[in-house]
Amino acid sequence: MQFNKTPATIKQQIEILRQRGCIIDDEEYARKCLTNINYYRLAYYFAPFLERKGKYRDGTTFEQIMKVYDFDRVLRRMLMTYLEEIEISMRAIISNYHAMKYGALGYLNASGFDPHHNHQAFLSKIERLIEANENEEFVKHHKRKYGGIMPVWAAVELFSFGTLTYFLIDMKSADKKDMVSQHFDLNYRTVEDRMLCLSDLRNVCAHYTRLYENPFPNAPKSSDGLGFEPDNTLKSYMAVARSLYPDKYKWENEFIPAVANLIDEYGMIDYMSGYGFKKKTT
Predict the structure, then answer these.
(1) Count of beta carbons in the 10 Å neighbourhood of residue 51
(2) How far apart are CA 153 and CA 96, in angstroms?
(3) What does the UniProt keyword field contain (predicted)?
(4) Is the pTM of this model over 0.85?
């Protein structure tokens, strides 16, 4: 198949938007935005405002779309801060438990995991992570002093959210049950599933992907501790994050008010259904 699309200048991009029914009152503002943000990237934010045949809904303005774009950007950054704390907390919980049960280097032995665990692939992953992070001071230290061998509490500091999640999943069921019971009012399968959900959310935030009207691949499997039946919207994923967040007081008294203030600042109350929040009726 032959590719026949040609690039468009900023002026042409603005004209395309207008031809499709997008109202642009401040052309200089639009030009500045399109100069600094790839049109192809913004197209993901244009999409929810489009109707059939590629036309924008009546009354759609460029400023309106950019408001959603900017709100999305700040919300992602805010979520990343709290996801980081969950990740760090889970690193500590998992590595401490595994170390106390199997020893500092027990994670290097297949006997410390469930039989379905692919230990050779796991060890290869560890080697790649050490190589990729060879300039980190703690990696240099363990290479210099111990030939690169790391205790589990050091190794987990190299793990991505996804790698940490699969470490948890590959632990023995009895260990997971015991460990989870010490920290959460949830069963271990629910914690596993929620870690998978948060890994997806973390990747979306880390890669600057649109949150607005962009459903996640999977809905959380359990409603335990959420207060509602979850779906694949951001609302559900935020509730999942709350259930694993190590400081509930901080979540309720810092994160929730910060999100509420952000909604007010950007005038987003009428758009929150795009994140899974139902508009309150009076």
Answers:
(1) 12
(2) 7
(3) Membrane, Transmembrane, Transmembrane helix
(4) yes
